[in-house]
Amino acid sequence: MSTTLDTTTSDDLDVPAARRRSAELERSVRERPGRFRALTGDRPTGRLHLGHYFGSLHNRVRLQNLGVDMMVLVADYQVLTDRDVADRLAEHVEDLVLDYLAVGIDPARATIFTHSAIPALNQLLLPFLSLVSVAELGRNPTVKDEIAHSRQSAVSGLMCTYPVHQAADILFCKAGLVPVGQDQLPHLEVARTVARRFNNRYGTPGSPVFPEPEALLSEAPLLLGTDGGKMSKSRGNSIALAATADETARLIRGAKTDADRHIAYDPVARPEVSSLVLLAALCLGRDPHEVAGEIGGRGAAALKATVTEAVNDYFAPIRARRAELARDRAHVRGVLRDGNERAAVIADATLKEVRAAMNALYY
Ligand code: ATP
Ligand code: MG
Q1: Whether pLDDT at 220 is above 90
Q2: Is-contact 350 171, C-beta < 8 A?
Q3: Is the dihedral of CA 213, 219, 222, 226 positive or negative?
Q4: Does the Cβ of 216 fall within 6 Å of ligand 1?
Q5: Which ligand 1 atom is the nearest neighbour of the CA of 225?
Q6: Which end of the chain has fewer beta carbons closer than 10 Å to its terminal beta carbon, N or C?
Q7: Are strands 177-179 and 214-216 parallel, antiparallel or unpaired?
Q8: Most informative mutation of 53, 232, 272, 279 for ligand 1 (most atoms within 8 A of CB)
């Protein structure tokens, strides 16, 4: 579905500029990682997939290992943006935590939490909503795309306002870095706008309450799914991190390609083929042009065989670790409990600061 791509890469979203800024940020982080706090999260709507891994998770683990203070959010309230009922929520939350632990997020260094358990975080939504206009909310290209794919017949208030809730997710802990995929760039703009307007309206000059958070894009900010649209948990087009080797082979065999037998890496003209090439290249740690060059005239079947082998080899140890961790559900729940406690302390302090800035502390 090419419309998925079109909406998120529209002109008002300057992806090349975001990539350049990411590269600069990367240099600052490497120089002084201890100065940075990062926040990212995922909706507990299903198992994490290869798009998550190469779009964000890989970066989170790398930043954590460099010494960045990492906050990882399970965005459980946001499940309700595009459906009436959050099905099998507890199971999906556990699955998400298992995926995090399996890829190397370390709960001793990172804070893994669910936002529904942090009242002070959610309370920030109210003053933040007062800082954005309804017209601004309506223009968000990612929200428009998600409405197009929504399972609901009517658009809920939560769907329109969740980018502001996401601003609360980021700003409650004053995260400066947000390692995300490209679909999140419009939301980052909302968080930056909220921070700036709050500081202007309530802050004292020279000592802003909130930093303006910045997106850190990866090498694969938009991995495509097997149907050629953005790979998404809820669109039936994803390959889960935890998939078996056989499932992976079957899904990749069914992936959309194009009629040109000669394999080349050209993300603009040939998005589906290029996304497969990129997937193999990322797993192999190689340049995508080189990978495509080696397959050349051998066609889509050869490309798919290369991708399948590369994915299965790369994820075998992660999948084994995940299966091992899944035996101890009590540990998973303990990780969340600890993370929620740590996040609540941070949120309480920020809310107090916000209320003080708004002259809303009365006793
Ligand atoms: P859902 O379909 O339920 O919305 P999703 O697959 O879009 O699920 P999210 O939980 O919305 O996943 O996104 C979590 C994070 O993963 C975000 O930072 C997002 O940018 C990133 N991400 C999701 N899909 C991709 C993708 N296909 N390529 C790169 N990054 C992605
Ligand atoms: Mg999504």
Answers
A1: no
A2: yes
A3: negative
A4: no
A5: 27
A6: C
A7: parallel
A8: 232
